[in-house]
């Protein structure tokens, strides 16, 4: 063994996003000094999740089951399909009370990084659309260049199959003050104005 | 199993200091989507550290060995003993190039929380001092009420044994501008002025 266990723990904690050397050190000492039980529980949860969590057969999100909870819920509206980039986006949209179904891309198109439709696995989405029963695709990818490109591409896939596609609205956030909103967002908000 | 593995992972990640629900979620998805190997390594490092890390027989710091690296290093100056609150403080002082030895209290006196000299295990420090060979005790506890009280108490222990005791200097940090230093620190800096 080349390094001692405490240094190893500090090093491996740095694989967590947003954790630098100082936070990793603080975390390691906190667990060792005050919460060994928590540390053991965390180790167990990590092993279990890394081992057993895979992708939902239908919507592609992360789940330990063959079908995720949402896909296996018969009460959800199967005619609405919301396209998102990540499982975290599903949680965010779930919090709004949306009752349709999802498809999780697990990324976005990014030709510069060599991620085209094939690498992103859009064939699985195409098969999903071909099975029918979907009236509307809600394109809820991020409002980044890659997210917009992905939304455009998936929108085209829907049009080819004569499925309606819509893009979530972009504009001034609720509670936001115009003074502090960036120009791009404000331009979007003006272009997307709706009659009242 | 009541909760799914992903939720369990998110919950257990929150035992890390400074990790709230959003960061925990981000960490869990990051590991699952992009770094399963890192997750497994982290689990392994956690198990090993929680299982095997104990206290140094001599200086009380956290280590997986019977004696820590510093205590078993014969090149260190055994006549200087630096008293600190936590193992992280040892790392901070090591970075200054200090070549003496340490004693780690693993906390501070805090009568309000029921932590007196006995609970803090100061008998082990007393035995250490009684073994002799120590010329000076450097009191490097934190500059908090509890840290000051602990420094005072340990200082008295040293005086009883006719060992010199010193407190690290408190004052204006290097590179600090007087304008932005709080009054308490500035008062300390004035009271602790040294002739040049």
Put the structure in a nutshell.
Two copies of one chain form a homodimer. By secondary structure, chain A is α/β, with parallel strands linked by helices.
Overall shape of chain A: globular
Biggest interface in this structure?
A-B, 49 and 49 residues
Count the domains of chain A. 2
Overall pLDDT score of chain A = 92
N-to-C order of helices and strands of chain A: HHHEEEHEHEHEH
What summary fits the major beta sheet of chain A? 4 strands, parallel
Q: Rg of chain A, please?
A: 21 Å
Q: Quickly count the helices of chain A.
A: 7
Side-by-side strand order of the widest sheet of chain A: 4-3-5-6
Description:
- Two copies of one chain form a homodimer.
- Chain A has 196 residues and is α/β, with parallel strands linked by helices.
- Chain A folds into two domains: 5-52, Helicase, Ruva Protein, domain 3 (Orthogonal Bundle); 62-167, Dna Topoisomerase Vi A Subunit, Chain: A, domain 2 (3-Layer(aba) Sandwich), CATH 3.40.1360.10.
- Chain A is built from seven helices and six strands; from the N terminus they run αααβββαβαβαβα.
- In chain A, the strands form two sheets. A four-stranded parallel beta sheet of chain A has the order 4-3-5-6. In chain A, strands 1-2 form a two-stranded antiparallel ribbon.
- In chain A, helix 1 (5-13) packs across helix 2 (21-34) and helix 2 packs across helix 3 (36-52).
- Chain A is globular, with a radius of gyration of 21 Å.
- Chain A starts with a helix and ends in a 5-residue tail after the last helix.
- In chain A, 29% of the residues are buried.
């Amino acid at each position: 063994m080349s390094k001692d266990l405490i240094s190893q723990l500090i090093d491996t904690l740095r694989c967590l996003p947003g954790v630098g050397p100082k936070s990793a050190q603080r975390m390691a000492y906190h667990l060792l000094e005050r919460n060994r039980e928590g540390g053991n529980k965390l180790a167990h949860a990590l092993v279990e999740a890394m081992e057993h969590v895979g992708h939902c057969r239908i919507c592609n999100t992360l789940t330990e089951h063959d079908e995720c909870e949402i896909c296996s819920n018969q009460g959800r509206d199967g005619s609405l399909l919301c396209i998102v980039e990540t499982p975290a986006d599903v949680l965010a949209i779930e919090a709004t009370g949306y009752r349709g179904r999802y498809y999780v891309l697990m990324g976005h198109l990014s030709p510069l990084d060599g991620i085209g439709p094939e690498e992103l696995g859009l064939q699985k989405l195409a098969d999903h659309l071909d099975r029918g029963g979907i009236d509307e695709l809600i394109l809820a990818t991020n409002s980044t260049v890659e997210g917009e490109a992905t939304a455009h591409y998936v929108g085209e896939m829907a049009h080819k199959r004569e499925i309606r596609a819509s893009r979530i609205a972009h504009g001034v956030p609720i509670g936001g003050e115009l003074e502090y909103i960036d120009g791009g967002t404000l331009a979007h908000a003006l272009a997307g104005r709706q009659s009242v």
